[in-house]
């Protein structure tokens, strides 16, 4: 059993950390119980600090609860029908309150989003029941309208000593002899994420009942994604050169990739134009040194590059911004992957064309503009696609509109008719060929015994005079014209017997 489940707090008190927030939550519950409806609670904070656990502990104080992951069921209709109705109709539950938990409220994205956010706003407006919303990113745009209607509780990361304390308790319960420094190290590395600490501890403890500091140090418990994100956050959020340098050193990624990330995220974090300019000047210098390292193969230049993109960028701001900016992947990569998708599609089509038409890839690609014109015609589009065996996305390359169903049915019918007609025609040809062959077959049948009888015994007995004797019977009995005739008929018969 996972320790996160086994040791999941059951009451609000058992949830470690965030004392002030827990107090406010208790007051909120008490008010509801006293019959004073309260604003919805919005719990915001980083992952793994116990927001969902808290919501479940709160749920125990109410008669019933319903939980919905807002990012799973995005559409307005679904959210409204699952939560919207039950939030309005108090009669369903008598006088009892039913707690509604909406998790991952900031996870709703895409174009349908507005529907989702609108629905949540609608629920907040009409809800007669206690409502708890959970989100990770306080600055998410999706929360802009929602935040104003809620009591916002910003939940902090769990402090490292608090995590350490819980780990010690668990070690005792599980009978693990753990070096205190090892537990401290797990707590430190978790960076406030209790879930991550518990998972790491359990993973190491699975290997042995004795836990040493080296066991923890040898585990790379963070994936590269979180490490690269941590490194960039440190550059943007810190002004301490040592911290910046250390955290960049931990990033196990291509440093030029890290630079791309920093470049993409600078203007998202810094808002002062002068600071942004300075940051980009440092990035330009970093880029220069990466270039030098590549050309000269002297990777000692990386150190300078790293200092410019790390300490240089960090120091470009006057002060640390008191806001939370989501680190995003450089757009250059999303663009590149989109282009890669396009290139793959192009190559797939070219491959099919070159196979069928016996042309090179580049010639096939050069024909694309003409195909686009040909594809404007529904019938032709269908015929070409059918011939080249194009998939739907490949057809889309040449025409945006789908080939109408009516046209497809018509063309398929036509193809079947043609196939039938061709079969008939071919059968006729075959019939004719076979009938034509009848007299020739008879002639060969008559000649064969004569040739075989005379040649075979003579080859076996007297091999030397073969040439003379072999020639003789042909000249005498078959004659020159007859000798040529079977040759001709043999040519014809190749196709005949093939059938
Ligand atoms: N403050 C805490 N005290 C004790 N245990 C905790 C705490 N935070 C997290 N945990 C442990 O981690 C597990 C996961 O926590 P939970 O799902 O509540 O975090 P969360 O903040 O809701 O994360 P996410 O934002 O990813 O949903 C819990 O089941 C519990 O075992």
From TrEMBL:
GO MF terms, alphabetically ordered: ATP binding; ATP hydrolysis activity; DNA clamp loader activity; helicase activity
Basic and acidic residues bias spans: 471-493
Alphabetic keyword roster: ATP-binding, DNA replication, Helicase, Hydrolase, Nucleotide-binding
A Pfam family assignment: RCF1-5-like_lid
Residue stretches making up the AAA+ ATPase domain: 37-159
SMART domains reported for this sequence: AAA (SM00382)
InterPro entries, per the entry: AAA+_ATPase (IPR003593), ATPase_AAA_core (IPR003959), P-loop_NTPase (IPR027417), Rep_factor-C_lsu (IPR023935), RFC_lid (IPR047854)
Binding site residues for ATP: 45-52
Chain segments carrying region Disordered: 437-499
One GO-annotated biological process of the protein: DNA replication
Acidic residues bias: start-end ranges: 439-470
Matching NCBIfam families: PRK04195.1-5, PRK04195.1-6, PRK04195.2-3
Subunit structure: Heteromultimer composed of small subunits (RfcS) and large subunits (RfcL).
Record function comment: Part of the RFC clamp loader complex which loads the PCNA sliding clamp onto DNA.
Family per similarity comment: Belongs to the activator 1 small subunits family. RfcL subfamily.
Protein name: Replication factor C large subunit
This protein's encoding gene: ruvB
